[in-house]
Amino acid sequence: MSWNSDLSRLGVPNDIIISLTDIYKHQGRQIYHNDVIKKDIQVIIDQTIERDVLFFSKLMDLKVSEARIRTLIEKGVMPKNNSEKTVINIGQVMKNVFANFDSFEFTTNEVQSIHSHLFRHIADIRFAKEEVKTKFHSQKVLNKRNEMDDLFLLADNTYKKNSYERLLLSIVLFIDFFNLKGFKQNNEFTSLVLMQLLLLKTGFDNFKYVSFYEYIYTNIEDYKKAIIGATFSYEEGLSQPLHLIRFFIKALKSTYVEVEQIVKNHQFDQGLNKSYSIQNTVFKLPEVFQKEDIRRLHPYTSDSTINRTLVRLREEGIIRPLGKGRSAKWIRIKNMEKFSIEEQMKLDIF
């Protein structure tokens, strides 16, 4: 039973209302964030897309190595198989999402276009069909496209009325679409793309700075538990959407904290040698970290600057490498308190 068809069933407890208030406080700072970052925003979006493709591919369990995924994304090399073609398709869809989320319309055609482009090389992209018994016990075949049309028409009308909280509307639309299972295969992944689109369209710019799919992948067990609650006994109208609502609210709050750090790093870089800014980040990261952790917080800083800083810190005995290659990790063997007061003052300005 669709949640969009009867939103009065959705009781919103106090903790969610309080969390929504916190989220909109963060959202209110987006004008400031965008003003600070405006010259580098496309660089940040490009790197977010790269991470979105990487972690979407991991969620799908595509048999393509991380290094190969990066090569396909960054260098535009020819794919060798259908999985690699899918990686390229994911990248094209993600670029389109960020370029056109404002003009996204609630139509089956738009979602079908996304689904077919993503999975045309690896899955059956046709609409699903469902056999149901009529009152005369004969079989009737229903095309899921018709149900999808009805769902999007209903959702579009609800959004236009502007009488319900839009983040919650986006989440219940995600739940309804996920449970509809409108395509023969890979509905769960198209559902996530729809959710990303809805969040961007609703004004949550934090997913321009931080990868939506990286958050899902990193918190996959919590996501799966929340999905179980949102799907169990759905047809009977007894599913529990609150766990999934809390999951996405937590995702927004968590990623806004990361956005704040990205903006601070940008301001720090503007007034200080970028190498010192990266060094400051190294002291704030966990003891064992990867170069990608630095890139995520300094998306506008070149690889060569990051590499030079890591080499300098290694030579100074502050860090040492664990392994080789792009996925190699580093371990910090000195902490900030071991440095002179003068050096600490240069670094620890937050």
Tags for this entry?
mainly alpha, 17 helices, Arc Repressor Mutant, subunit A, three-stranded antiparallel β-sheet, 350 residues, 2 domains, 5 strands, two-stranded antiparallel sheet, Fic-like fold
Question: In a nutshell, what does this entry contain?
Answer:
This protein is 63% helix and 6% strand.
The unreliable regions are: 338-350
Q: Assign the CATH architecture of the largest domain.
A: Orthogonal Bundle
Strand order of the largest sheet: 3-5-4
Mean pLDDT: 85
What's the CATH class label of the largest domain?
A: Mainly Alpha
Individual helix count: 17
Describe the structure.
The protein has 350 residues and is mostly helical. The protein has 2 domains: 7-262, Fic-like fold, CATH 1.10.3290; 272-347, Arc Repressor Mutant, subunit A. 63% of the residues lie in helices and 6% in strands. It has 17 helices and 5 strands. It has helices spanning 14-28, 30-37, 41-59, 66-75, 82-100, 108-119, 144-161, 166-180, 187-201, 206-209, 212-218, 220-231, 242-271, 274-284, 291-297, 303-315, 341-347, and strands at residues 129-133, 139-143, 288-290, 319-322, 329-332. It has a 3-stranded antiparallel β-sheet. It has a two-stranded antiparallel ribbon with strand order 1-2. Strand 4 and strand 5 form a beta hairpin. The longest helix is centred in the last third of the chain and has 30 residues, at 242-271. It is globular, with a radius of gyration of 23 Å. Mean pLDDT is 85; it is low at 338-350.
